[in-house]
Amino acid sequence: MGAMGRLCARIFLVLLPPSAVSLCLEDGVPEQNRRYLSDTAASADESRTPIRMVMYDWGSAEMASTLTHILVTEHFGYHAVMNQQRTLGSFDGVLELAGCTTEDCSQRYAESHIAMECWMSEIPFQFARFAAEHPDKVPFDLGSIGYFGENSLSVRGAVRDDAYFTSGLSLEFYKSYNTTLHHPKLFFDSITDLDINDFAPCNTTGNNFANDVEMRAYGRWTGDWDGLEETESGYIAKCSDGSAGKSDVFGLEEIPILNKRL
Ligand SMILES: *[C@@H]1O[C@H](CO)[C@@H](O)[C@H](O)[C@H]1NC(C)=O
Ligand SMILES: *[C@@H]1O[C@H](CO)[C@@H](O)[C@H](O)[C@H]1NC(C)=O
User: Fold this and answer.
1) Using CA atoms, how far apart are residues 132 and 7, in angstroms rounded to an integer?
2) Same structural domain, 128 and 232
3) How far is the CA of 242 from the centre of ligand 2 (A)?
4) Is residue 109 part of a domain?
5) Who lines ligand 2 at CB under 6 A?
6) Whole-angstrom Cα distance, residue 174 to residue 170?
7) In the predicted model, what is the mean pLDDT of residues 207-219?
8) Which of 36, 109, 174, 262 is most buried by its number of CB atoms within 10 A?
C-alpha cells in the first residue's frame, strides 16, 4: 500500500506541468520565466545562482521571509530558495549573509543574499566588531521593515496570584525579587528542571556571555563582578561546568524559571 502510494505520487509529479504550479499573485512571473543571479566569481556550473534566503527560526520571521520570497519570485521574477537549515540567532544570519561559518570567517561557503527580521538591536557589538574585522564581507543593514518588537519577561497571572495570595509577594514588582527578603523561586520551577542539553556552553564564541563589552556592562550595572571571570579575550560569565545552567552564575539559583507550565 505504501509503495503504491509513493509510485502514484511520483507519476503525478512527473505529469504535473510547471504552469500548473499555483502562483500567489495574479500577474506573478511563472517559474519558467524567472531569472537567476549571475555570479561572475563562481565556476561555470555555479554561475546561475538562485537568491538564497536566510530563514530565522521564529514565527514572525517565517512570515516576513515567506512574503519576501513571493515578492522576489513572482514580482521581481528571480529564482529564490529558502535555506533548509533554520537560523537560530540574528547574528547567525549575518554570518550566513557573509558566507562565513564562524565569526573569524576562517571557513567560507556560498553566502546568502537576504535575511528578513534580523534584529540588529540585539547584536550591535557583534555586528560592529564583525564589520571592523571583515569590511569586505559584512552585509548591508537596509534598515527597518516597518514594525517594532520588544523582548520582555512576563509572569503568568495564575503564578502572580498564587504568590500574592499565599505570601503577599508581588511578583509584578522587580524589587520583590530581592532574595534577602523573599523567595520568589518557590512559585516557579527550578533551573534543574530544565534539560541541560538545551543550553550552549556559556563560553561559546559569539554568545553574549562571552562578549567582553556586554559582560563589562553587566558588571558595571549590577556590581556582580563575582559572576564574571577575566580571561585573555576579556570578561566572560563564570560558569563552573561550562554551561550557564547548573551553576549559580548570575544568581541563577534564584532566578525563577517557568518550565512547561505555559
Ligand atoms: C535587598 O534587601 C536587603 C535587606 O533589606 C537590602 O539590604 C538590600 O539593599 C536590598 N537589595 C536591593 C538591590 O534592593
Ligand atoms: C569552554 O569551557 C570549557 C570548560 O569549562 C573548555 O573545555 C573549553 O575549551 C572552553 N571553550 C572555549 C571556546 O573557550
Assistant:
1) 55
2) no
3) 7
4) yes
5) 201, 203, 205, 242
6) 9
7) 83
8) 36
Residue 146 lies in a domain: no
Tell me: the pLDDT tens digits for 104-163?
999 999 999 999 999 998 888 889 999 999 999 999 999 999 998 877 778 889 999 999
**In terms of Cα–Cα distance, which of 117, 124, 125 is closest to 143?**
117
**Å from CA of 201 to ligand 2 middle:** 8
List Cβ neighbours of 232 (8 Å cut-off, separation of 6 or more). none
- Count of alpha carbons within 13 Å of 196, Cβ hemisphere only? 10
Judged against a pLDDT cut of 70, whether residue 22 lies above it is answered with yes
205 CA: nearest ligand 2 atom: 13
Q: Which three cell numbers stand for residue 134?
A: 571583515
Residue 35 lies in a domain: yes
Cα distances (angstroms) measured from residue 244 to each of 79, 96, 178, 215, 239: 42, 26, 21, 14, 6
- Ligand 2 atom nearest residue 203's Cα: 1
217 touches 115 (CB < 8 A)? no
Quote the cell numbers at residue 12.
503525478
Please say whether the beta carbons of 216 and 208 come within 8 A.
Answer: no
Structural contact between residues 145 and 250, judged by C-beta atoms closer than 8 angstroms:
no
Residues 126 and 218 in one domain: no
Does residue 181's CB lie within 6 angstroms of at least one atom of ligand 1?
Answer: yes
Q: Which position has the grid cell 520568589?
A: 184
Domain tally, the chain: 2
